[in-house]
Amino acid sequence: MTGAVGFIGLGNIGAPMAKRLLAWPNGLVVHDVVPEACDYLVRKGATSAGTPREVADMADVICVMVQNEAQVQEVLAGPSGILAAQRHGVVVAVHSTISAEAAVAFAALAEEAGVEFVDAPVSGGSMGAHGGTLAFMVGGTDRAVELCREPFELMGNLVAHFGAVGAGTRAKIARNLITFASFAAVGESQRLAEAAGLDLGKLGEVVRHSDGVTGGAGAIMLRTESGVMDEDDGLRAIFEHTATLGLKDLHLARELAATHNVDAPFAQLAEQWLRVALGLDATNDHS
To answer: Which active-site residues does the annotation give?
Structure first.
């Protein structure tokens, strides 16, 4: 077990993450550009630091949850940044969603100062942060990740180590593609439902209920590769059935959209690419 854990960036997600770390037996050190953001945690037993450098003077593992790459750069390598403490062996875990290239560059800066860098973006939002149910997508050396694992497990219930630095960020980007593409498809679904005279609130209840039962998009993410599955793959018959139902329903959605003069580009794309997505066909060319 490491010594004290530090947390920098006490925003909407960072503050509840840091709150979970109050249970860390060797102490919690916190910092935010708004000093008052530390007050609650200090009252609960945390130590407040005036700069990221002061956090690094006291903590062996430092979690960073700031808004963007420029802020990560400042926290890590600014005049009062973590690296200015010159403490070899410290591990910095960045939970902000940055580019994979930036993560690799920050890791190189950290290495020059004898500090290990881990990119560890999270999934689960504010609800997961408050509930301690976040998923951590992690890139870094085995040693660095293992030093972070116990603090991470106070904040989340899934720690997935994807490989070297940058891998965690790439996993977050891939995961968020599902989220935001789904949001765009939801917009199309709501326009269609509204045009058909349906109650959007009730439809939302149905979607949340059924996704809670089936697992939503993650329910088909059972394979270890994305190409066409073998004919004797045990999932093939199941996915063929899924494709048959899905193509029928997508065709019905497009017909309903045409009836109500609603543009439905996502329904059309899904109809074109569903079998490819399920690993049943190599291309969407069925001509």
So the answer is: 172
pLDDT band, residue 1 (cuts 50/70/90): low
By C-alpha distance, which of 274, 284, 210, 277 is closest to 244?
Answer: 274
H helix count then E strand count, the chain: 11, 9
Which of 188-192, 212-216, 282-286 has the highest mean predicted lDDT (pLDDT)? Answer: 188-192
pTM of whole model > 0.70? yes
**Domains of the chain, earliest start first:** 5-170 (3.40.50.720), 222-287 (1.10.1040.10)
93 φψ region: left (φ > 0), alpha (ψ -120 to 50), beta (else): beta
- pLDDT, position 51: 97
Q: Return the sign of the alpha-carbon dihedral for residues 169, 173, 176, 178.
A: negative
